[in-house]
Amino acid sequence: MTSSTILSYVTFIYFTGFTLYLLMMVMGKKSFGTAATFVSLAGLVAHSAAIVLRWMESYQLGIGHAPLSNLYESLIFFSWTVTLFYLVVEWRTKNRVLGAFVMPISSLALAYASFSPSVNSRIQPLVPALKSNWLIAHVITCFFSYAAFALSFALSIIYLIKLKNQGAGRAGSFLNRIPDSRVLDELNYQIVIIGFLMLTLGIITGSVWAHSAWGTYWGWDPKETWSLITWLIYASVIHARIARGWEGKRIAVLCIVGFACVIFTYFGVNYLAGLHSYAKS
Amino acid sequence: MNATINHGTSKKSGLGIFWRFFSSVKLTIALLVILAAVSVIGTLIPQREGAIDFAMGMNPRLFQVFMSLNLFDIYHSLLFRIILGFLVMNLVVCSIDRFPVTWKLFSYIPSPDKSRIFQDIPTEQTCILSGNSKHILNRIEEFLHKRYGKVFSKKGDKYSSFFVQTGRFSRFGVYIVHFSILLILAGGLVGSLFGFEGYVNIVESDKTDKIHVRGSRQQKNLGFEIRCDRFTVSYYKSGMPKEYKSEITFIVNGKDVKKGTLLVNHPLHFRGITFYQASYGTIPGKKIILRAVMNGKSFSFPVSLQKSVPLPGNGGELLLEDIRDNLVGIGPAVLISILPRHGEKISMWIFKNPALAKSRLPEPMLKSPKFNPSAFRPYTFFLEGVDTVYYTGLQVSKDPGVPIVWAGCVILVTGLFITFFMSHRRIWIRAENHKSGVRVRVAGMANRDPVGLRRHLLKLTDDLRKHVL
Ligand code: HEM
Questions:
Q1: Which of A114, A246, B209, B273 could form a disulfide with B225, with the two C-beta atoms 3.0–4.6 Å apart?
Q2: What is the value of ipTM here, to two decimals?
Q3: Residues of A in contact with B243 (CB under 8 A)
């Protein structure tokens, strides 16, 4: 079995995990939650194995390199970090509600990688510019930050749902299983901090790589600029929270905007060229 | 955190207004968001070289507006620099404004004897140590000294108090972060003032001492020469490029001073200037292979530019006058001249692809002997091949700001670690005489991370129980 086949199965395992988390939330049965964790964890193990397998396959082809070199591989890695981060947070906070909001992200990223005709899953050799350890450090740190921001996005959504339905909490409603707003807000902030640190490292390692490949550490290309925009947004989240004492709703909204920037940095930048040609006519 | 300090300036004076404006964190948030917004605009409007096509299709009035705001080079525009300037002022003023408070928090030693803090502490932060109380108190102090350094104590008849702290330097983490931002911006400024960025193409075994400066028509003299000894490209089986490699020699006053191999991602440095492998290409070399067909017999032979060779069959001399990479869009061609033993010199262009030439060239031209490969009877000439040589394309840059920027990055990451993951923990310990020994209670305060503080206090209580005997 090739790594790509395993990964397309993992898509469904994650989807099953998501469904179980959802059932747990709606029906309030703890057993669904336990099953959800178990299924997601099994998915993560298979996912990790597939990544290692893909790495080995690349060596068998004689072009060995870490599986972090194109859109397909980056989506796979993104999904992996999101699931890993989520399971760590679940374990630390002993709360499973977040799963129903995070697992769809993991599952969608994998589904897009595995089933979109525009994403090429072949293992390709590295062009000279991509042969750099700085690039590997860059990709890993960036995707850790993206995963953290994805989690923060999910937390912010939950926060807003909880806020909107405040007082309407009937007994047994899933709203009661969501942690207290303060806890959500604090957890969100912790995760944003980790994401911010990782994004800082990601931008720095990216600059070091650009400097060694092209001689400029900063060239204002759209992708670079969008990662800076994301960084600035989260920097303002941190300042708003620390120095202005903002909490709750406004921070949640800012975190959602921040994640929109992440998504745009990741995918949207590729459409900017299209936008230009549109603006010209 | 919100304490304000008296700077000795009256609130109404100009300096007072200036100070209040720039010491506001609201301004920081606004500036960060504005900077993000302006950057977004820069990614939507094509910048610099990319803007030419876009600008040509624009309404002229709008174009005027764009030009006056420098929207086609927004990251180097006055607007952008003003925002950065405000950010710098904001950072500096904010830091100065808050420093006294931070310094106080850093250096202030509270009284070791505090009662309120021991109210409502969990039972796990209490332990009973049995034995001689005087001995135990000494042991506690010793233990605390070993773990925390300086111990502040107050001994009494009924109970003794101790105060220790850790991580108080983390109070400066924020200043480290902000200083590093200034350093990175300063590095960028140094680079743009004292650096340059250019490029140069060097043909294999050729040398040069001039480069083109990007964004200007000027050439720049490097003060030394660079020679490309060899350029090679290797490919994967699939045809994708695997490696570009230039062997470079630096020459000063005619002497070879340094040799090196230049690869993508592995630049070479010489005299503060850095050379990067950026591109490559080929140009026709100075040698061709020509084939002459004569009475059903065929001869192939090499000819060098501006050299003549005897024609096979002793028909005269053949001189290679010119080599063109692409003549009138038909591809490689060479100009040869025949100097027959008797008669006049004949010159003709020989195309690499005669069929294409026949279909492209107009009828009258084809009739002229200048484009007829059979114009010198009984010979017909064919161009078999043109020797090509590689040139290597180097990006050449000098940026004295780079070390400053890297230093800023390292400091930034260090500062972020300190601010986010370290905290100033203040710990009070009270030891009271108890029936058969001493009852020890541990309590603390921290500027962040209450969970970490609690874990710390539990561990400390546990360690006191284990180690103080
Ligand atoms: C541009 C990039 C900036 C970054 C990355 C940055 C980063 C940070 C960080 C990490 C903190 C610490 C949060 C904490 O205590 O956990 C912080 C706090 C703070 N920053 Fe910034 N900052 C930036 C710009 C600015 C600017 C321009 C100002 C100018 C006013 C500023 C003013 C402050 C203030 C007043 C605090 C709170 C300090 C305190 O509460 O003691 N920051 N910043």
A1: B209
A2: 0.89
A3: 128
In chain A, the largest separation of any two C-alpha atoms, in whole Å, equals 62
**Mind listing the pLDDT tens digit for each residue in A106-152?**
999 989 888 877 777 777 766 666 777 888 899 899 999 999 999 99
Assess whether the C-beta atom of B91 lies below 6 angstroms from ligand 1. Answer: yes
**Closest protein CA for atom 11 of ligand 1:** B174
The model's pTM: 0.82
Instruction: Determine the structural domain holding residue A234 and report its residue range.
Output: 126-281
Domain spans of chain B, in order of start: 2-106, 109-167+423-467, 192-283+392-411, 285-387
B53–A280: do the CB atoms touch at under 8 Å? yes
> Residue A272 — pLDDT band, cuts 50, 70, 90?
low
The preferred substitution site among B91, B174, B179 for testing ligand 1, maximizing ligand atoms within 8 Å of CB, is B174
Domain boundary among A117, A143, A177: A117
B378-412 confidence digits (pLDDT tens):
888 998 888 888 888 888 888 899 999 999 999 99
The CATH code belonging to domain B109-167+423-467 is 3.30.310
Instruction: Nearest by CB to A197, from B26, B396, B416: name it.
Output: B416
- The string of DSSP codes covering B420-450 is HH---EEEEEEEEEETTEEEEEEEEEESS-H
Is the distance from CB of B136 to CB of B468 less than 8 angstroms?
A: yes
Interface test with B, best of A61, A63, A120, A232 (most B CBs within 10 A): A232
Based on the domain organization, do A26 and A103 belong to the same domain? yes
**Domain shared by A149 and A237, yes or no:** yes
- Select from B177, B182, B417, B448 the residue to mutate for testing ligand 1; criterion: most ligand atoms less than 8 Å from CB: B177
Task: Please indicate, yes or no, whether residues A87 and A150 belong to a single structural domain of this protein.
Answer: no
Please give, rounded to a whole number of angstroms, the shortest distance from the CA of A139 to a CA of chain B. 16
What string of DSSP letters covers A191-233?
Answer: HHHHHHHHHHHHHHHHHHHHHHHHS-S----HHHHHHHHHHHH
Chain centroid, CA B210 distance in Å: 25
Dihedral over Cα of B318, B321, B323, B326: its sign: negative
Tell which residue, B120, B237, B208, B126, has the closest CA to residue B392: B208
Nearest to A63 by CA among A54, A73, A72, A71: A54
